[in-house]
Each structure stands twice: as structure tokens, then as C-alpha cells.
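Dear colleagues,

For the upcoming journal club I promised to circulate an example of a predicted protein-ligand complex. I picked one with pyridoxal-5'-phosphate because it came up in last month's discussion. The inputs are reproduced below in full, followed by the predicted structure.
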Amino acid sequence: MRGPEVPEYIRRLAVYVPGKPIEEVERELGVSDIVKLASNENPLGPSPKAIAAIKEALPNLHRYPDGSGFALRKVLAARLGVDIDQVILGSGSVEIIEMLARAFIADGDEAVYSQQSFVSYQLAVNQVNGRAITPPATAGRAHDLSALARAVSDRTKLVYLANPCNPTGTHFTRRELDRFLAEVNDRALVVVDQAYHEYVERPDYPDALDDVKAGRNVVVLRTFSKIYGLAGLRIGYGVSSPDVVGTINRVRSPFNTSSLAQAAGMAALEDVEWVRTSREHNARELAYLQEELSRRKVVFTPSVANFVLVEFETDVKELFVEFQKRGVIIRPVGGPGLVNCARVSVGTRSENKRFLAALDLLVPAKVGT
Ligand SMILES: Cc1ncc(COP(=O)(O)O)c(C=O)c1O
């Protein structure tokens, strides 16, 4: 039997292709010491306190989770200095990116985001048949906030800003954000995606939570997938006005975050020490990686996050395969402004050395240039 006709905008959707799991690459290559630097995960692993909380929650797996994640939202609200009805949980912050598109964009409405930014914005907008308006980044691969502001029209419902931006690793400043919000914020809801904010050590880096508290039309997105080391559990959160959170809640599926994820999230939040260790580790290893790239005269975009965008001179897809053969998984990116670029996550010192050793074999050093 032929199935029902699939709408044109669904047929046009590209399926998200994640970085390959370590196990799959190991199977393909018949090796066992793969280094995965492809998904911006915490190379130190999850907080031990989160693991303990998961073990404690296991006997209750036959019960549905608390659908709204009350206990975790309560802890988050207290920690962040907002009301509990300003916090919403998602199965990763990606789910909140998608829920926002479902809640605010109807056929033909527009969303604005930087052309060189997180791929999920595109997927979310396309899934609801929205129109994406995507001004290119600056020459330094940062968000071009003036161009983004100019792109906001009467049909724009959402603006997605990634700060820091994935895959570029760049950030924008408080002054830039203030100017942007002054220009567009009475016209569109501005989503500030701060998935990597815990890693940023710049005094001019804005915490958009302050904008939520100031009553601006802003949603902040955060995640437990990065510095908290819980990517496999899928849990993230959004903070905004009770009104906006109420609207997103209408399109949230009933039990969208699991009991284990909620328990682990609460324990991970308490583990301030683990976050500090992870941040310090990343700062050290990011500096090491960037110094080593500079020494080799490899072109990269200076990063404030836990990954670096490297620009190669040869076909990045072929290079990716060659890296993989040497047991190192990096993440090729592509599209306008990112030709032959790959994102390399910051690993442990030994993982970073493995990447650099493979790099030395694959990319000839530039001597005397
Ligand atoms: C900018 C940005 N936002 C959101 C996410 C989503 O993370 P998760 O859905 O795991 O919370 C990522 C993950 O790579 C990201 O880079």
C-alpha cells in the first residue's frame, strides 16, 4: 500500500547526521583506542555525583517521571534567581530549540539566525515550514549582529543567537547584545543559546539571563550536555518569562525528560567542584591546542568554548576519513563560509596529542612561511 503523500517541506528536510559513535568506528576499523573529538563533550566524563544519583533513581524506573520536572526546575530557579514558572526542561536544549519553532512559527513566518551557526536552528525552522533568513557571519566568523538586526522583518517571530557559537567558537559582547536587543526586541523573541557559557572566561561575555530578568523578550537556553558531561542523558533547560514558557509548554510532549536525567541534572548542579575542574581543564587544553595549531601555522578561528574550528587547505571530507583511519574522529563542517573546515573538540592532553600527531602526518608543516 502506498503511504499518504508527504508534504513538500517534509520531503525537503535533511536528516541530521551526528558524529559517528566510537563503537561504530572501532567496529569498522577493527581498532580499540579511538579518540572522539567530534561532539564537544566533556572529556573528563560525567560528575561522579550524577552517576550516584542515577544509581539511586534506578529502582523507580517502572514509574513515569514527573512530567514537568518540578524538583529540577525548583533547584534551577533558586540557583538562577528566577521563578519556577520561568524554567522549562527539554530532552537536550535541542528539543527546546524545536519546541520554540513549533510554538511560534506558522507557515511562512520567519526565523533569523547566523548562516554559520548551529545546524539545529535550520532543522527546527524547516520542520515547521518556516522561512529561514540567515545573514553570513563577519570575516572573523562571529555573529554579524548588525546584519542580523537588519534581517528582522514584520514576519520574523524568532531570532536564534548562539553565544558562544557552534561551530565557530566565537562570542559576542554585552554591548553588541544590548544594541541588538534595543533594535529588534519589541518585534521578535530572541533566543540566546548559551550551551557553552560555563566555559567562557571573557569579562565582556553577556549572560542573557540578565536580559530575561530585565523583562526583555529573551529566552536563554542552557544544557547539561556540555560541561556537566551528561550528553547521553538528554537534558537541557530554557529560561524566559512565564508567558513564553507557558506557550512553549503547550507543544511539549508530556514526559519529555526522563527520571534519570532529572535526578542526574540535580546532582550535577550541586557538583560545583566538577564544573570548576572541567572549566579549568578546558582552559588549559584549549590554550595548548591553539598554541600547537599556531606553531604549525594551521588556520583556525580563536575559540572561547570547548572546541576549535580548523580550516584546512585540502578537501576536509577526505581528511576526515584519513584522521579516522588513524583513530581520531573530528567533525567536518561545510557550507558557505566554512569550506574545508572541521570542528575539533578539546580533549584530554593525551587525546589532543593524538589529534596533533595525526595532523602532523596528514597536513605538511609550513616551513618558513
Ligand atoms: C550551540 C548549541 N546549542 C545547543 C546544543 C544542543 O545540545 P543538547 O541538545 O545536547 O542540549 C548544542 C550541541 O552541540 C550546541 O552546540
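Two points we might discuss: The longest strand covers residues 156-162. Residues 24 and 271 are 32 Å apart (CA to CA).

See you all on Thursday,
B. R.
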